[in-house]
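Collaborator request, handled under Task 6.
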Amino acid sequence: MSAWQFERMQNIAERHGWTKFVSMQNQYNLIYREEEHEMMPLCLDRKVAVKPCSPLAGGRCAHPWGTVTARTKIDGVSPMVWPEKTAAQDKAVVDNLEKMSKESGRSMAQLSLAWMLGKPFMGSLIVGTTSVKHVEEAVSALDITLTADEIAALEAPYVAHTKQTAF
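Structure tokens returned to the collaborator:
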């Protein structure tokens, strides 16, 4: 959804005395940051909570690139959301994340989630887990505050996705 469409729905709700939206669930993570251009500033300005789904990009920001997990073996949705045409630019982000993970002694998931939780527009994250370890790892990200240099380094390899390369 475009920010203008969301704003229009908010205005229609207000005009008719209907309940306005109080949260936005959208795609946002280290390898898909297009929402930063318009939607996130709009949500911040309008005090709408942001609750992104897939904060770890279907596990891509939790493991070295190409890792095969039980999930990747059966996941028929992720290939549609993370198409092959963006693989090279996404891999660069994940490779950088892996490098930073090794240097810091933190997991890739911890760094990814800590990066997201540090954003001023962030409300909460919708993290899919398949084990208690994943839950513990996600919760531990709450205690991590990244430095400005770490944030800049995590964001540096990102290349904008063209329209409709992810939902």
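The cover message to the collaborator said: "The longest strand covers residues 23-24. The chain has a mean pLDDT of 88. Please let us know whether this matches your experimental observations."
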